[in-house]
Recover the amino acids of this structure.
């Protein structure tokens, strides 16, 4: 997996930003994560260094791939990675967070209120239901997701939210075959994989990748299929 020097340098810059001028707000976020994790079981990653690398820095890596003032749908928000991190670094972005588990939505609301974040909407709905709602279907410049499902299933959840000409930005592992095996899903859903950006987190925290998938035509109305078929029988 070949990683560009520019990407390595950018990751270092982002880490310095998180640890520098943005340190206080990220510390507040981490404190809330630790506090609410005891009752909401949000993450198994709890050590300070692990949180900063595996959650904060990894989420931050995609920050340059969203155009100014973009409208972003995050699918399966969980504890807010990457959305909350991206919002802290890019206040110009507007986020709609789609999360099916109510207690996680409660946590996200607490974070948004405590950190004073504006332009973040939280929806306690399943992705497949939200994608069929006319208020949300193909209304976003971007969809994004991290650690939700394999790429072929994830594309079916996410691409229906994206307008034609918009992009789906997926945070994935270093296994690039997973991104390639989803090519038939992209095609069926009206998209194509535009770029794959491999990167490594510092200090051997792992190989990762971003997949940038562009929406080139409307997604057929039958997708997402619902009733778990996205995972049971991937495209």
């Amino acid at each position: 997996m070949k990683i560009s020097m520019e990407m390595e340098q950018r990751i270092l810059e982002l880490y310095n930003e998180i640890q520098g001028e943005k340190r206080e707000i990220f510390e507040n976020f981490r404190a809330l994560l630790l506090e609410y994790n005891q009752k909401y079981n949000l993450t198994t990653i709890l050590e300070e260094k692990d949180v900063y690398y595996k959650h904060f820095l990894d989420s931050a890596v995609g920050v340059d791939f969203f155009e100014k003032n973009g409208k972003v749908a995050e699918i399966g928000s969980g504890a807010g990675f990457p959305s909350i991190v991206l919002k802290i670094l890019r206040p110009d972005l507007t986020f709609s967070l789609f999360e099916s588990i109510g207690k996680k939505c409660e946590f996200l609301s607490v974070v948004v209120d405590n950190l004073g974040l504006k332009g973040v909407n939280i929806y306690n709905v399943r992705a497949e239901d939200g994608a069929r709602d006319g208020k949300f279907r193909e209304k976003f410049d971007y969809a994004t997701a991290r650690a939700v499902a394999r790429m072929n299933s994830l594309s079916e959840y996410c691409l229906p939210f994206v307008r034609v000409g918009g992009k789906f930005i997926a945070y994935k592992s270093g296994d690039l075959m997973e991104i390639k095996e989803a090519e038939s899903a992209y095609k069926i859903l009206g998209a194509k994989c535009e770029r794959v950006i491999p990167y490594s987190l510092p200090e051997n925290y792992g190989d990762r990748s971003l997949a940038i998938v562009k929406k080139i035509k409307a997604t057929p109305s039958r997708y997402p299929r619902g009733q778990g078929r996205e995972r049971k029988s991937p495209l």
In short: The longest strand covers residues 162-173. The mean pLDDT is 95. The radius of gyration is 17 Å.
